[in-house]
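Section 4.2 – Deliverable D4.2 (structural model, holo form)

The reporting period included a commitment to supply a predicted holo structure for the target in complex with zinc ion. Inputs used:
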Amino acid sequence: MKLEVKELLEEVGTEKRFHFAENWDRLETAQGQVEFTEPVVFDGKATNIDSNVLVQGNITSAVELHCSRCLKAFTYPINVDYTEQYCRANKDGHDECRLFHGNEIDFTQPVIEELILALPMKWLCREKCEGLCPQCGQDLNVAKCDCQVEDINPRMEVLKKFFEKE
Ligand SMILES: [Zn+2]
Ligand SMILES: [Zn+2]
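Output (structure tokens):
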């Protein structure tokens, strides 16, 4: 995802539209690897502002996540807006800028970061996923099971043990 900006940088105010669509395999996240189910598309425009490059666009894709309760795979669509200012690496005073070198901006790493940030905190197939029975493994979204899930109350447990001894 490399954008040529040589001509853009010649004149302040110049705009350049871009469209990237790439098939990526996987995304490394803190919660493990996830697979893409759709191409990563980055659409937008770059504008020369005071010889820096303002990039505004939109990133879309979709990944396959696994529900943390029932373990089922589900597709999670991603659609995020992107705005960032880029400055040439040899310039001074670039506090609020991302740097680029030479005449092209490589969006690969910034896009990866945006995709990771776009993932939900909790991976759930649906908000009210019932999960699996901790005893028999039945998917409780599909059917209930006959397991008696005991209410574990530590005080009651002590009493129960006390009476069992008698
Ligand atoms: Zn689930
Ligand atoms: Zn069960």
